[in-house]
Every structure is written in structure tokens, then in C-alpha cells.
Design goal:
The protein is an alpha+beta fold. It is 39% helix and 13% strand. It has three domains: 7-204, 4-Layer Sandwich (Aldehyde Ferredoxin Oxidoreductase,  A, domain 1), CATH 3.60.9; 241-413, Orthogonal Bundle (Aldehyde Ferredoxin Oxidoreductase Protein, subunit A, domain 2), CATH 1.10.569.10; 431-612, Aldehyde Ferredoxin Oxidoreductase Protein, subunit A, domain 3. Bound molecules: iron/sulfur cluster (SF4).
Length: 614
């Protein structure tokens, strides 16, 4: 077998039994791998009454057919389960090296079922696998866990993915951290791991990935790298990391402040990518097989927010912990970022939920009585850092925020339109008023408000993919917007199946050739488009099975309120955009389900009974 390793490791935590299952080759052809394959495997295993934090929720780590090869950005993995934050399809990808290590260990994925009686961690060392007691590391942070695991295994070459206190305490937006500082952040996969008493997965691999035609494969890798490095965004990320986008984002009104209510904010300059770069970045770094090298390491040498060498703050983190909270103290954002990573907490949901707490406090939905004495005011850098810690430890008011925005807002009777949440997931730092396509993209994405499932802002910057039906367009141009966003989602679904980083920009021809020379199987662009569409609609059907309807595809009114600044007072015509999207998708407007005809067309007949009955 080429490209794929042909097997999935199965770990039943309740019985401690470890076995392997063959990769289903038909599914590999129909869904590629990564989250596409995961959606097919997990669809049958999860039901409406599956408790996301119960032992019956399976947890699946997957890589793709190109993972661990020299293909650009091929060190990633994805982790999927029913989300404890949203109750629907949960999916989170992460970069670094750990994904490549899993592939080199000889597996296309690891499926965890059940719950261990006591905390454990999984060790994969060459061909050997074992579960070890994790009592000593259970309450350690992710950095301490990494060090302790390597010490116990007497080998610093082990690559580790683990949870911190966030996952241990089942914070609903807990992340899984790998390679020390990379995060599978969104939808609370760390909480699922914690609910299973699974602390970490340590891998030291000896194998490699066999390719169908290594010489041709390498030629295409070089071409794809050369192509992507000509992109403006690749150059910007190489220099400044994703934080480099902050100035541009602000100029376009994409970076909004004060809990999405303010288009202009003086503090943006103080937390920009160049500020971070000039004052704190000490080293540039890269994930496995990546020429973009957007990773930066920072150090804050002194002061109350002193931070030892750690990952820089990404654009999203600067946005949620900075602009949304009106916090212009960059050092406090770097500290919050470090704390989130050590505790294993998603910085997007974490920062946005803290900003929501500030909003609730200002609007008097909560007072010092509910916050247990805390005064939660805009821009209070010390309070922000303190809240991160309280959330991870589920202490005091932090215990309420650990449930995420939606549950906290419902508890204090905040109307739905005042919460920046879709299907339970907090809206990231790309505003639908700045890039109209983001509105229906967020409203219909399969894991809730997601900026990875479609990234229209990237397309409007010139990173179009016309061969996948994603042409360049102006940010306020809504001609054929339903069609374009649906195609963008299908295109990005291919990425999460491969699995590639969204910042890589190989052409369709590159992807097709990489798969051909990697796996020996022909995947022409039309087939890839069909795979993307099939996987996206299967995840949608999964969500329909969980109870999602057309009423859940909404955009909170705050994003339909004009702002001053870079959005120039524009707002998307959301109802029309959504109608056009539904028509193009062939989704039923009355129920929000993919039509039976579409499901048959996509070879998804097996879901018809579940979502349509009969
Ligand atoms: S672009 Fe950045 S995040 Fe993506 S793979 Fe490369 S170094 Fe990692």
C-alpha cells in the first residue's frame, strides 16, 4: 500500500485491549482520510443520545494519505468526536510534527473507546504499544507532562500529545496540545480525552511512508513549495507569523473590538504582529515539511507578565485576548497565550468567553454576586490572566465560564443575538461585515462558527482556487455568494481530509499529482471536488441526526449592525445569502437537511433513514 499505512490502532480504554483494524480502502477512496474518513467511521458510532463526556463517545485521531511525506505542511493530524461544547460534530486539527510521527509509527489513525478506570497514557514505541499509569502526570501542565513522559520513557525523542488541567477538569473548550506548543484547540476534544482518563499519547516511530513514485512526488513537492512561497500571505506569515495579518485585518475592519461591537480601536497598533516581532520574537520555527515557517518563539524577560520561551500569540489569540477585551497590554496577551497552552485551552473560545463576561458585567447581566467578588471590566489585563487560570481550574466564576459562552449566557438570561456563538461555537476574529462570505460560512459550517471550514478573507486577498469553483472576488461582492461559499467549504474539507494546513496553497493540479504519485490512485480534480462535497454533507447529516435544523443556521444580530472603521458601515444581506446557499447546496429549506436526491448522488444513501425517516 502506498501513501496510506493500511491500519488504524484501536484502544479500548475500559478493557485496556489494544488491537488494529484494517483501513477501509473503499472509504479511503470516497473520503481520502483525515476528518473525511473520520466522519464516515464515527457516523455509525455516535447517536443523538451519546453523551460527549460519557465513555460511549469515541475519540478518533486521524492523519491523511500525504501525512509524513515531503508534501507541503504534511505534519498535521485531526481529532474528532461528538463535541462537549456544541453537542454536534467535533473536529480539530493541529500542526507540528506529532501527526507525521503517528503516520511513521505505521498507523492512519487511533480510535479510543470506553473510559479507563484510572488515568493512563498510551505509548507507541516502534512496533510496541502499551497503556501506562498516568497518576503522576494527571494534574501536570502540558509542558511538565512532556518532560515527565520523556523522563519515564528515558528517551527525549518521544513526541507527545497531551491534555493539561483544562482537559483533566473537562473544560468544554479544552484543547489537546502536541509538540509542546501546538494545539488542536476547537470544539473541546481535550475534554473528551479527559473524560476518558486519557492524559497523553507518546510516540517514537521507526517507519516511513511508502510512495508510489518518489521521484515524481518530490518534483511536485518542489513545484508546490515554489508556488506557495510566491504568495503574499506566505511571505507575511514567514516574517511575522499569523500575527502579521493584524494590521491588515484592522484596516479592513476584520479585527473588531469590544466584543464585536466596535470597528475602531486605538489599541490595535500596540498588539500588532510587528510589535510582537520587534520586541519579543527570539526564534523562527516550522512544522514538519513546511517552507512557510510561520511559527515564532517569544520571550518576555521581565515584568509581571514575564513569560519564558514559548510560542508567539497567533492572530486569533491577539484578537480575542486583545481587541475583544479592549486589552492593549501585549505582554499580558503573551502570558494568557502561554497559560492557555500549558492548561490546554482553546484561545479563541477562551478569549471570546472572557470578553463576553466583560460584556455581561457592563450590561449588568452579572454583578459581583455572580462573579464571586470579581470586578470584570474592559481592558483589565490582570483580570484576564486571572480568569484563564480560574477557568482551567474550574474555580469560582471560572467554573461558569469553563462551560463556554452559550451555557454561561443562558444561565444569566442573555438573549441569543447578544452572544457571538453559532451552534455553540464562538465566532473567530474574521468579521462577516468585513468579508460578506464569512457570514453564511459561519452559519453553515459543520462544527459551528468556524474560520477554517471556509476562509473567504483569504480568497479575497488573492488565494483563490478557481479549479475548485472558488474564484477571486471583492469582499463586499455578493454575486453568486451562496455557490462560492459552498465550494470553499468543499475545498477546505478536502484539506482537512488530506490533511494540509490552510496556509499552504498548492494548486488543484499539485494536489491531484501528489495523491497520484503518493498513493498510486488517480484523484482528478473533479473526484476531489466530489469527495469534499460528500464529506461536508455527511458531517451535515451527522449534525441533522443530532437535531440540527435550518433554524440553527443563523448569524447573531450583532453582526448585522453597521460599524465605523474598515467595514465602512457595510453589513451582509444574510437572509438572501443563506437562501442562495441552500439552493446551491440542494438542502431542504424547511428542515435544513440535504435532500434525498443529493444524498443518493453523493453515495450517502445510508443516512437517509436516520435524517428523513421511513
Ligand atoms: S504554515 Fe505555519 S502552521 Fe501551517 S504548517 Fe507551516 S509552520 Fe505550521
Amino acid at each position: 500500500m502506498f501513501g496510506y499505512q493500511g491500519q488504524i490502532l484501536k484502544v479500548d480504554l475500559a478493557s485496556q485491549k489494544i488491537s488494529t483494524d484494517s483501513l477501509n480502502l473503499e472509504w479511503a477512496k470516497e473520503y481520502l482520510g483525515g476528518s473525511g474518513y473520520a466522519s464516515r467511521l464515527l457516523y455509525d458510532m455516535i447517536n443523538k443520545d451519546t453523551d460527549p463526556l460519557g465513555p460511549e463517545n469515541p475519540l478518533l485521531f486521524m492523519v491523511g494519505p500525504l501525512t509524513g511525506t515531503p508534501a507541503p505542511t504534511s505534519g498535521r493530524y485531526v481529532v474528532c468526536a461528538k463535541s462537549p461544547l456544541t453537542g454536534i460534530w467535533g473536529e480539530s486539527t493541529s500542526s507540528g510534527v506529532w501527526g507525521a510521527e503517528l503516520k511513521h509509527a505505521g498507523y492512519d489513525g487511533i480510535l479510543f473507546t470506553g473510559k479507563a478506570e484510572k488515568p493512563v497514557y498510551l505509548v507507541i514505541s516502534g512496533p510496541d504499544t502499551e497503556l501506562r499509569p498516568a497518576k503522576k502526570i494527571w494534574k501536570k501542565n502540558t509542558e511538565q507532562t512532556l518532560q515527565q513522559v520523556r523522563k519515564e520513557l528515558e528517551d527525549n525523542r518521544f513526541r507527545v500529545a497531551s491534555i493539561g488541567l483544562g482537559g483533566v477538569n473537562q473544560v468544554r473548550f479544552a484543547a489537546i496540545m502536541n509538540d509542546n506548543i501546538r494545539a488542536a484547540g476547537r470544539t473541546g476534544m481535550g475534554a473528551v480525552m479527559g473524560s476518558k482518563n486519557l492524559k497523553a499519547i507518546a510516540i517514537k516511530a521507526r517507519g516511513k511512508v511508502e510512495l508510489a513514485d518518489s521521484l515524481e512526488f518530490l518534483k511536485v513537492c518542489n513545484e508546490a513549495n515554489e508556488h506557495q512561497m510566491k504568495k503574499f500571505t506566505s511571505k507575511m506569515f514567514k516574517e511575522l507569523g499569523t500575527a502579521g495579518y493584524l494590521d491588515t485585518g484592522y484596516a479592513f475592519g476584520d479585527l473588531v473590538s469590544k466584543y464585536y461591537s466596535q470597528g475602531e480601536w486605538d489599541g490595535a497598533q500596540k498588539i500588532s504582529g510587528s510589535e510582537q516581532h520587534d520586541r519579543y520574537v527570539i526564534k523562527h520555527d516550522a512544522c514538519f515539511s513546511c517552507a512557510i515557517r510561520c511559527r515564532k518563539l517569544i520571550e518576555v524577560k521581565e515584568g509581571k507578565f514575564k513569560t519564558p520561551v514559548h510560542e508567539c500569540a497567533e492572530y486569533e489569540t491577539l484578537g480575542t485576548f486583545g481587541a475583544l477585551t479592549l486589552n492593549d497590554n501585549l505582554e499580558s496577551i503573551l502570558k494568557s497565550n502561554e497559560l492557555c497552552n500549558l492548561h490546554g485551552i482553546d484561545t479563541i473560545t477562551g478569549g471570546s468567553t472572557i470578553a463576553f463576561a466583560m460584556y455581561m458585567y457592563e450590561k449588568e447581566y452579572i454583578t459581583k454576586v455572580e462573579t464571586e467578588g470579581l470586578e470584570i471590566k474592559w481592558g483589565d489585563a490582570d483580570m484576564i490572566v486571572q480568569l484563564v487560570d480560574l477557568i482551567a481550574k474550574r474555580k469560582g466564576f471560572g467554573n461558569i465560564l469553563a462551560e463556554g459562552t452559550l451555557r454561561a449566557g443562558e444561565k444569566f438570561k442573555v438573549p441569543r443575538d447578544e452572544m457571538a456563538v453559532i451552534k455553540g461555537l464562538e465566532i473567530p476574529m474574521h468579521d462577516p461585515r468585513a468579508f460578506f462570505g464569512m457570514g453564511i460560512g459561519y452559519a453553515t459550517a459543520t462544527r459551528g462558527a468556524c474560520h477554517m471550514a471556509q476562509d473567504d478573507y483569504e480568497v479575497c486577498y488573492g488565494n483563490a482556487a478557481p479549479e475548485f469553483g472558488v474564484p477571486f472576488h471583492e469582499r463586499f461582492d455578493d454575486n453568486k455568494i451562496g455557490e462560492i461559499i459552498a465550494n470553499e467549504q468543499d475545498f477546505r474539507t478536502i484539506y482537512s481530509s488530506l490533511i494540509f494546513c490552510n496556509f499552504a496553497h498548492p494548486t488543484g493540479e499539485h494536489i491531484s499529482k501528489l495523491l497520484k504519485y503518493g498513493t498510486g490512485i488517480d484523484f482528478p480534480i473533479e473526484t476531489l471536488r466530489l469527495i469534499g462535497k460528500r464529506s461536508f454533507n455527511l458531517k451535515r447529516a451527522f449534525n441533522n441526526k443530532m437535531g440540527i435544523t435550518n433554524e440553527d443556521d443563523y448569524l447573531p444580530k450583532m453582526f448585522l449592525t453597521p460599524l465605523e472603521g474598515g467595514t465602512e458601515g457595510n453589513v451582509p444581506d444574510f437572509p438572501r445569502h443563506l437562501k442562495e446557499y441552500y439552493q446551491y447546496r440542494k438542502w431542504d429549506e424547511a428542515t435544513g437537511r440535504p435532500t434525498k436526491e443529493l444524498l443518493k448522488e453523493l453515495n450517502l444513501e445510508f443516512v437517509i433513514k436516520d435524517i428523513w425517516g421511513g
